[in-house]
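hiii, so i know i said id send this last week but things got crazy w the move. better late than never?? heres the sequnce for the chain we talked about at the cafe, plus the structure i predicted for it. fair warning i was half asleep when i ran it
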Amino acid sequence: MQFVESGGGSVQPGGSLRLSCTASGFTLDHNDIGWFRQAPGKEREGVSCINNSNISTYYADSVKGRFIISRDNAKNTVYLQMNNLKPEDTAVYYCRGPRGVCMPPLFGSWGQGTQVTVSS
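okay and structure toks below
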């Protein structure tokens, strides 16, 4: 399974970005998918997850009310709309199937991720 993340960039505090997660060689529609991030010197953490039926979502407390996860199975894509970005959101963002309640999986490979930088 190869996940491909895109949509990152550099924005000022208060700005917005929309990240996209697609899959190479397989379809996402039967999988729960999560967005994870890793800032320099910190452990990878779960940001937001969505279940395969597009009914249930999870958000880390730090992003509640600012980020929105969604999926378009017809396009084989999961999105993360990030609004009101803060400097502490700066990290490399990855997508994969989650472990437990939106926790990063312990095994397997990660994609290249997409860099999000929030600074003035």
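btw The radius of gyration is 13 Å. thought thatd interest u
miss u guys!!
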